[in-house]
Amino acid sequence: MKIGKWYDPISERWFVPREAVSFSDNSSAAQPPSPERVVEIHRKAEAQRTEAQRIWQLLVESCAHR
Q1: How far is it, in rounded angstroms, from Cα 3 to Cα 21?
Q2: How confident is the prediction along the chain (66 residues), in pLDDT tens digits per residue?
């Protein structure tokens, strides 16, 4: 089953699912990522955490005003 993009009304943004990661035994999967790729992965993870925290704060604030 493939889920397409979806809209989050809290952040007012469209989200596109990430590409599926294959854990096969091919030679490219066995190689560790390059240092540049590791930095990129960490940067994206931090951005996602920041976005999740922002959405959570918006949710808390909207519930507090009711």
Answers
A1: 15
A2: 667 888 888 888 888 887 766 655 555 556 888 989 999 999 999 988 898 899 999 988 888 876
| CB distance 59 to 8 below 8 Å | no
Q: Which residues of 7-38 are buried (b: 16+ CB within 10 A; e: fewer)?
A: eeeeeeeeeeeeeeeeeeeeeeeeeeeeeeee
Domain assignments of the chain as residue spans, ordered by start: 34-66
Q: Is the pTM of this model over 0.85?
A: no
